[in-house]
């Protein structure tokens, strides 16, 4: 007898059939339902209360990420997102998905996601998750390297620079180009706490080692990795609000400028 019930939501019939076929030989999982659009899926998920959801990101009407937002606390315990477009990877992990399958995915990759889902469902802590809210410890950013996507702990990010329609994440002497915006990473919805210090740069305050005065009211920030970033006058107050009075007193003693 199957231990868990799954639901497949995808607007492509062939995609739904493939997921159903891949699950057919797993005795632990029963496909309890399928939907081809997000609006119907919200109703069916609330009715069937599946344990495991395989969800396409891009669908007409209500897309996969909006569907999860609509469900709120009624999100199934485990969600696996599927899409043909890798720019949604970051949003997938922020939406509490446990995996992100990039179409066309192979059977081996699919079964790895299923085994991970089963392990989570088997854990004593398994249950219906709270919807993500604000910045949370342990959150991850998804980066791509050599054709592979992997999760980078958000707290490890040192700084971010603007690169047109992309941003470059810097961490441990390495960097990754990600399709995202400086504004979103600076917002409360970001999985990592970042502060803007320059028009083209954000820094993780926890990674700051030193701040030294420069010419024309600017400062130079040195991070734990040794990276150096300019702090412009325009963003000094923002950084002060994050760092607190101790850093403010230090900056005031270093510079001839008025305190922040």
Overall tally of structural domains: 2
User: What is the radius of gyration?
Assistant: 22 Å
Number of E-type strands:
15
Read across the widest sheet, the strand sequence of neighbours is 2-1-3-4-5
Stretches with pLDDT under 50, minimum 5 residues? 128-138, 256-260
Distance between the termini: 66 Å
CATH superfamily of the largest domain: Response regulator
Largest sheet: 5 strands, parallel
**Structural class designation:** alpha/beta
Q: Into which percent range does the helicity of residues fall?
A: 25-40%
Question: Mind explaining what this structure looks like?
Answer:
The protein has 260 residues and is of the alpha/beta class. It has 8 helices and 15 strands. A 5-stranded parallel sheet has the order 2-1-3-4-5, with helices on both faces. It has a 5-stranded antiparallel sheet with strand order 10-9-8-12-11. Strands 13-14-15 form a 3-stranded antiparallel sheet, with no helix packed on it. The protein starts with a strand and ends in a 6-residue tail after the last helix.
């Amino acid at each position: 007898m199957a231990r868990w019930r799954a639901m497949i939501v995808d607007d492509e019939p062939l995609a739904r059939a493939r997921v159903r076929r891949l699950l057919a030989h797993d005795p632990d999982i029963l496909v309890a339902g399928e939907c081809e659009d997000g609006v119907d899926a919200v109703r069916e998920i609330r009715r069937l209360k599946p344990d495991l959801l395989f969800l396409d990101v891009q669908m007409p009407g209500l897309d996969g990420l909006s569907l999860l937002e609509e469900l709120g606390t009624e999100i199934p315990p485990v969600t696996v997102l599927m899409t043909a477009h890798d720019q949604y990877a970051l949003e997938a992990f922020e939406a509490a998905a446990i995996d992100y399958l990039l179409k066309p995915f192979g059977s081996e990759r699919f079964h790895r996601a299923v085994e991970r889902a089963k392990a989570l469902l088997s854990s004593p802590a398994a249950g219906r998750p709270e919807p993500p809210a604000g910045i949370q410890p342990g959150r991850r950013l998804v980066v791509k390297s050599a054709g592979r996507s992997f999760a980078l702990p958000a707290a490890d990010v040192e700084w971010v620079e603007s690169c047109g329609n992309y941003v470059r994440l810097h961490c441990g002497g390495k960097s990754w180009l990600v399709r995202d915006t400086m504004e979103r990473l600076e917002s409360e919805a970001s999985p990592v706490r970042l502060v803007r210090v320059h028009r083209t740069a954000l820094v993780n305050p926890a990674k700051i080692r030193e701040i030294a005065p420069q010419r024309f009211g600017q400062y130079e920030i040195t991070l734990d990795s040794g990276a150096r970033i300019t702090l412009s006058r325009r963003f000094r107050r923002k950084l002060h609000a994050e760092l607190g009075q101790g850093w403010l007193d230090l900056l005031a003693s270093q510079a001839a400028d008025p305190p922040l």
